[in-house]
Structures are given as C-alpha cells and as structure tokens.
Amino acid sequence: MRTSGVLMHLTSLPSPHGIGAMGTAARKFVDFLADAGQTYWQLLPICPTSFGDSPYQTFSTFAGNPYLIDLDELSNQGLLEREEYEGLNWGDDPASVDYGLLYRTRYPVLRVACSRFLQRPTEEYAAFCGENSFWLEDYAFFMALKESHGGAPWQDWEAPLRNRSDPALFQRTREALASDIDFWKAVQFLFFRQWRALKSYANDKGISIIGDLPIYVSGDSVDVWASPEQFQLDERLLPTEVAGCPPDGFSADGQLWGNPLFRWDYMEKSGFSWWVRRIGYQCRIYDVLRIDHFRGFDSYYAIPFGSTTAQNGVWREGPGMKLFRAVEAAIGKQAIIAEDLGFLTPSVRQLLADSGFPGMKVLEFAFDSRDGSGSDYLPHNFVRHCVAYTGTHDNETVLGWMDSAPAADVAYAREYLRVSAAEGANWTMMRSIWASVADTAVTQMQDLLDLGSEARMNEPSTVGKNWKWRALPGFDSPQLAARLRHETEVYCRISQH
C-alpha cells in the first residue's frame, strides 16, 4: 500500500505556554493529517531533553519529556488553576522555544500539579508504577539525586552514589528524597496518561505514529548510571571511547557526539536483553519505530575519550543480525524503519537486506554534482521497500537547501526536478517523492509551509540554535489540508479513514 506522512515534532506545535504539547493543538494537528489523507505522523524522540536541548541526548531512554505535558489538560483535570500558569512568562517569540526559560518556569508548575495529584493517588497510578518499575524506580531516584546535586552529571557525585556501592547509603538517601522521587514518578504518570490519550485519538482518526529511537544514550543518563556494565567504561566509570561520525564532505572534523559505546560482547552473553527491553518498550509506545544510525549496528565509529574532534576515530564491528534476531525472537516482528544514512558499505547494505526493514532515501542528498554514477537517492533509483524524505530534522528545509547548497548541486536539482517558479522548489521536490515508487513518502511540515532556513530544526555539530522551531497558530489550515490531500490522491497515497 502506498502511504505518506508528515514529520513534525510535538515541540513545534503552537502553544501559549512556550512549547508544543499533547493537548488541543496536537489533536487539531491529527485532524489536519486525517483531512489531508495522510497515514503517518512522524515525531522525534519524546524523551526528556538534557543540556543542549536535543531529544537525542536524554536523561532516560524510557521516560517522557515533562515539557510536553499540556497544562490546560492538567487544569481540566483539576490539578492546576489557570491563574497558576497563564500569567507566567513563557517567552516572547511564539515561533521559537526558549529552553532556559522553560526549565525555570515549567517545573514549579508541574510540582503544584503533582502535589495535588499525589494527595489522592489513583489505582491507575499504582498500576503504572508497577508496570514500569523496571525503569521508573531508577529514573525517579536518578532525577531526585541530580536535582539534589544542583543538576551536576552523575559522574561528579560522591563516589558511593556514583558507583552505587553502598546499599545502606542508597536506602537512607532514598528515604531522604522520598517526596522528590514521588514527584518524578507522578510526572511520568501524567506524561504517559496524556500520551496514551493522544495516540488513541490519532489511531481512531486513522493516523499511525512513527517514533524515533536513538541508537546511543547520553553519558549523563540513568541508563548508564544504573547499568554501567553495558557500556565501554573504565574503572572510574568514564568512557574509554565515544560515539560519532568520521569526517566527510559535510564536516572536515566529523561529528563528535560523545555518547558512551556499548559492550556488544557483554550484551550478547545476555541475549541482548537490554536491547530487547528497550526496543520492545518503544514498539509499545509507537505504531512504527525508526531506529536512528542503523549503520552503527554493522560497524560503529569509536573516538578516543577526551578527543576534541572526530578525526582520530576507528571503525569497530557491531552486533549485526545477531541483535535483531534476538529482538524478533523475544517480541516478534515489529514495524521498524532503519535510518541507513551515512557511510554505507556493502556489509551495511547486507544488514539492511537481512533485517527486512525499509531504509531511508533523502532527496536533498541526491544532487551531489560530483557523483557521476548517479546517487541512490535520486528517485529513479528508489526501491519500493523504502521511506522517502525531502529532508529530515538534520537537513535544511527544501527552500533553505536551495539557497545554501553548492550552486552546481542546485542547478542539477532544478534540471532533474524541472523546478518552476509557479510551483516552487519545495512543492516540486515533495511531488517527486510522492510520485516515486517508495512505499512511504514523508515530508517536513516546514516544506509544506514554504519555510526557509529560519525553520531548520537541527544543524549537526552546532549547539545553541537547534530544536527551537515552532509553527504559528493557524499553520494547519483547511486550505493546506485540501492541497495536501489533492496531491496525495494524485499519487495514489491516500489513506481511507
């Protein structure tokens, strides 16, 4: 079946409270997608963001981002009075997220709501805590500890807490921080109650949600603190090598992500149980799961810890199909998309084929004028079993790409696509993926809105300017839905809701 969808993160929805959330605006966007004949809403990771604000650097691979909790929904449930949050300063620019302001403002409001909720905790809350105890207990304790240490990374805590080496001290500290631990548990309950309601609403409208799983976890995360044996750490619990990407045509220094790397040999001895639990959990949260940096399961780039660039890394062997066979044996076959971008070797291509997952084709990568052989990302080279994109969250918008890419590449794109001034390059490029043989085609919301570089979500290897873009109220208009539905029908991708 030919399908299509839209990539737009929850944070980018309009809201009077500084950031998009899981309330009325999210349901209205679902209505827009349904009216437009779409099948998918693709999101970035919904985990808590840490320093740098990236959803790919998070305090927990299991928890939900407290910023995405809709405050009006809490008010409707009697957990907040409107005057407790409506008069606060949520920022001056409705088109951008101010994460620093959000950090200072959102948590005091959530503490009020959680305090009221915990006065009369429900059976549903007790069931949630029980079902999720395998991650929730450690997460809530970790966040309470982090807060008690002024937000410092766990590597800077006193040794017994850092090393988890003193059970008696652990118990005394848990008791001392009991109210804070309860707060972090309640926040997660409120998050996932809203998430389940939003996902149910979307599914009832015929919209499936594509989620995103980063391959790596943050060094300053409960995942590493609670399970250090799963990672390549030294006796001081510092990484021996860290993750990144080698230098390429986009970056002379490469990309230094800094995440700790996995001990694949150790993980294999347990049947990859850590990964089975992680992927199984994510597949319950979403309808389809995109696994980021899929090529890292074939071989991964390892950079000496302490390096300032990614230039001196080496390639090391990953787990390959052993991991995915173990996952499928444990949880069955799942709807998974492999983000197979980057430096693709024959062994990476073989891993993708063996997995059976659809890979990704990004049209902005197709027009390298130096590639005389013709890129795999050109639509005439697509295979059916793939997901085609104009660009991802790491790319420019189409109009931004047209303004910033090398002149020869832009000229080639205009010639190949037959770009016309009347239609606009963004609609021409979107039309080319809709018309392709790809089973699924996904467009960025920014491209549907004719936006340029000002709306780019992320520029890799930069900090301080990313993850901020927000749409303005009225962006999901009936007129745009009708236009998108027409294009979807023309190219036989219509979803019959």
TrEMBL record:
Enzyme class: transferase
GO molecular function per UniProt: 4-alpha-glucanotransferase activity
GO biological process annotation, one example: carbohydrate metabolic process
Listed transmembrane segments: none
Keywords: Carbohydrate metabolism, Glycosyltransferase, Transferase
PANTHER family with a match to the protein in the record: 4-ALPHA-GLUCANOTRANSFERASE DPE1, CHLOROPLASTIC/AMYLOPLASTIC (PTHR32438), 4-ALPHA-GLUCANOTRANSFERASE DPE1, CHLOROPLASTIC_AMYLOPLASTIC (PTHR32438:SF5)
NCBIfam families (alphabetical): malQ, PRK14508.1-3
Family classification: Belongs to the disproportionating enzyme family.
Name of the molecule in the record: 4-alpha-glucanotransferase
